[in-house]
């Protein structure tokens, strides 16, 4: 992307949520804005701090988040809702102090704050400092649009869902099915309801809403977002091909993945990863292991420490199973995912459908097997399987036979070939959006002008 310097002397302050899936798009946005000539300061929490050394062109300022060493060691991301509540309570005053100092000391004009829609206090803070605030949504616009109605779904009588109506659509929230609902609204509404309400209210008071998405994927949802939030909307993604997310990885990437893939045949390997937050039970882990093993298809499997509840890593696998798995596949703790998905040897992606993974898979034209864990992943997976038809949905069946069947169907059977063809069409459409003159590319120009006008 061409570098412009007409905005020299203007600085934008970014404040990501401390989750891998939120830090990567925020730093991608930082790179986009930097390429348009803006200087960048990133304020971040101590927990899950981004690696400043990987981004020498940006300034990084760390604030306290109030999490104790014990809490950090116990992996607070295992309960995202309670983590968000806690850091939202703890980080307000350190954030205010930090931003106040920055505004006083900066040699350049600070044009605006851009922060994640998961921060609840930043709109009030920026209003108190007279600094315009823009909001970055790191998931699909369709899901943010549903924030006002999610708390109401519980009272609509959809839950509990009987077997006979499991596949019925949720009329207020297409293309979600009733069986998806519980893992969106959760068991506990005490924290969720107020969180969603404040997010909607503060976004409506903001100076604009940015999505890591594009018109080609969700034109209607972007227009609806404009009607709901009544602020300017900018869909500026997915720019993975231009600004790799790998430099914003919080975990050490196993660099042996790519050389291992080099020795595999074209489109023969199924890549398996459930992102940075989802966790599964011991028995689910074993079902995935046997399913991959029985499929006889080469695989690259990310087992993040913390993925399996109650286990350190892969010690639950018997020596016999480890040996058998090792004949066909490779297990790593964290992969350079974008490089992996771009590799010619990858033919499919068994994914939890986090928005980043879903976009990265589409950008590389890799069809998916959907195994969503909850929240927006339930919606993304429905789009992948039911609307775009570029993947197979496991419907939550973490069962060795189902996994074996889905892997074979996607990787070797004719149905997989049809899905792959549709994926190639979608990939080309999305690629056009980020090229010069494409919808996202134009939206970046409009965003840069909007920031200048603030
Ligand atoms: O071995 C790995 C596994 C993942 N990744 C990267 O980690 C990111 C994961 O992001 P995502 O796919 O969005 O999953 P989560 O980490 O689960 O993201 C959280 O944040 C997303 C954006 O808000 C939401 O869509 C998800 O539901 C939420 O769980 C992606 O960029 C991957 O490339 C790696 O680099 N290596």
Automatic annotation (TrEMBL):
This is Glycosyltransferase. Keywords: Glycosyltransferase, Transferase. The keyword Glycosyltransferase applies. It comes from the Eukaryota. GO terms for molecular function: quercetin 3-O-glucosyltransferase activity; quercetin 7-O-glucosyltransferase activity. Belongs to the UDP-glycosyltransferase family.
């Amino acid at each position: 992307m061409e570098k412009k310097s007409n905005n020299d002397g203007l600085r934008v302050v970014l404040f990501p949520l401390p989750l891998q899936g939120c830090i990567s798009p925020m730093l991608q946005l930082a790179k986009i804005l930097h390429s348009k000539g803006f200087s960048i300061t990133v304020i971040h929490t101590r927990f899950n701090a981004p690696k400043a050394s990987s981004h020498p062109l940006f300034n990084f300022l760390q604030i306290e988040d109030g999490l104790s060493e014990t809490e950090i060691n116990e992996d607070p991301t295992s309960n995202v809702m309670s983590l968000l509540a806690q850091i939202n309570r703890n980080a307000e005053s350190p954030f205010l102090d930090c931003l106040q100092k920055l505004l006083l000391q900066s040699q350049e004009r600070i044009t605006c704050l851009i922060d994640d829609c998961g921060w609840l206090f930043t709109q009030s803070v920026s209003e108190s400092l007279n600094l315009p605030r823009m909001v970055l949504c790191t998931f699909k616009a369709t899901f943010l649009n549903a924030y006002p109605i999610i708390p109401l779904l519980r009272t609509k009588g959809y839950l509990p869902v009987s077997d006979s109506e499991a596949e019925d659509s949720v009329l207020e929230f297409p293309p979600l099915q009733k069986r998806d609902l519980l893992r969106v609204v959760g068991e506990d509404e005490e924290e969720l309801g107020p969180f969603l309400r404040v997010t909607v209210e503060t976004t409506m008071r903001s100076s604009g809403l940015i999505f890591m998405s594009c018109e080609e994927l969700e034109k209607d949802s972007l227009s609806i977002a404009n009607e709901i939030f009544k602020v300017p909307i900018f869909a500026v993604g997915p720019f993975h091909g231009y600004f790799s997310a790998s430099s914003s990885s919080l975990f050490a990437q196993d660099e042996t993945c790519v050389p291992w893939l080099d020795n595999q045949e074209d489109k023969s390997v199924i890549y398996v990863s459930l992102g940075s937050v989802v966790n599964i039970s011991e028995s689910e882990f074993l079902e995935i292991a046997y399913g991959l093993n029985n499929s006889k298809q080469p695989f690259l499997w990310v087992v993040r420490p913390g993925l399996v509840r109650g286990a350190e890593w892969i010690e639950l696998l018997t020596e016999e199973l480890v040996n058998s798995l090792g004949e066909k596949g490779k297990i790593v703790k964290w992969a350079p995912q974008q490089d992996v998905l771009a590799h010619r040897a990858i033919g499919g992606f068994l994914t939890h459908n986090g928005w980043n993974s879903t976009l990265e898979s589409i950008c590389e034209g890799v069809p998916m097997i959907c195994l969503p864990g909850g929240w927006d992943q339930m919606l993304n997976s429905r789009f992948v399987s039911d609307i775009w038809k570029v993947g197979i949905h496991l419907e939550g069946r973490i069962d060795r036979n189902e996994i074996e069947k889905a892997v074979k169907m996607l990787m070797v059977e004719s149905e997989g070939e049809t899905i792959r063809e549709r994926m190639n069409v979608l990939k080309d459409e999305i690629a056009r959006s980020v090229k010069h003159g494409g919808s996202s590319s134009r939206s970046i120009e409009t965003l840069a002008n909007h920031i200048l006008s603030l």
